[in-house]
Amino acid sequence: MTDVGVDETLLKSVAERVAGEAAELVHEAWTGMNAGREVRVDTKSADTDVVTAVDHESERLVRARLAELRPDDAVLGEEGGGIAGDGVTWVVDPIDGTVNFLYGLPWFAVSVAAQVGGVSVAGAVVEPVSGRRWTAARGQGAFLDGRPLSVNAPERLDLTLVGTGFAYKVERRTKQARFVAELATRVRDVRRNGAASLDLCAVAAGWLDAYVEHGLGHWDWAAGALIAAEAGAHVSLPGEDAELGPDATFAVAPSIGAPLRQALIDSGVGAI
């Protein structure tokens, strides 16, 4: 249960402020990298699962600022770890879309969310290159640079644009490829952009009609899923819909929710 006494508006302001500051650091590093400056790169779960020195620098900045602004709160970060606290816990992805960042693609973001009892109550996703700021607070709607967001209302399955993503390990990627090949015969098209938080925001903005992916970390969806939900999407988080798979994240425009869910199941989503 979430604490009804939490000030979601304040938490959203903190999330946007801190994510924005980290995004400035990331943008400066990205600009320097594209100009030839070397960035240290390590790997995590696989050779294709990379983490850069900038990921660590961004998370250190976020943790330092949260320690100043919210000293009593817990922090859970992709790179620095942590555990949820009894009150507010900040869930941080210092660069969501690190591979895009490393290749020079501008589709990556800093994601910061405030959770209470494991439920997101406020969050911000800030894009370092474009400067776009996606924000939401529980019960207050979702916004892009202050503009209210609302999901699409596709009328037919074959007119539905779906976003997805792939795991780093070959065995699971093989299953995901089979699933996408089947799904692509049922919908308008499938997109793979490489940053889960931004794909969820894209659903909120109507840039995608739906998004589904397996194996996301807590930090990947904590802010983006709230933004999608506050824009009117139906959202299912890992562990909430067994037929989609135990670790599936699914966000969809309500008008197409039921038929698309069935199409995902028929395409083999539960076996990934």
TrEMBL record:
Reactions it catalyzes: L-histidinol phosphate + H2O = L-histidinol + phosphate; a myo-inositol phosphate + H2O = myo-inositol + phosphate
Keywords of the record: Hydrolase, Magnesium, Metal-binding
Highest taxon in the source lineage: Bacteria
Top EC category: hydrolase
Gene Ontology molecular-function annotations: histidinol-phosphatase activity; inositol monophosphate 1-phosphatase activity; metal ion binding
Purpose: Catalyzes the dephosphorylation of histidinol-phosphate to histidinol, the direct precursor of histidine.
Name this polypeptide is given: Inositol-1-monophosphatase
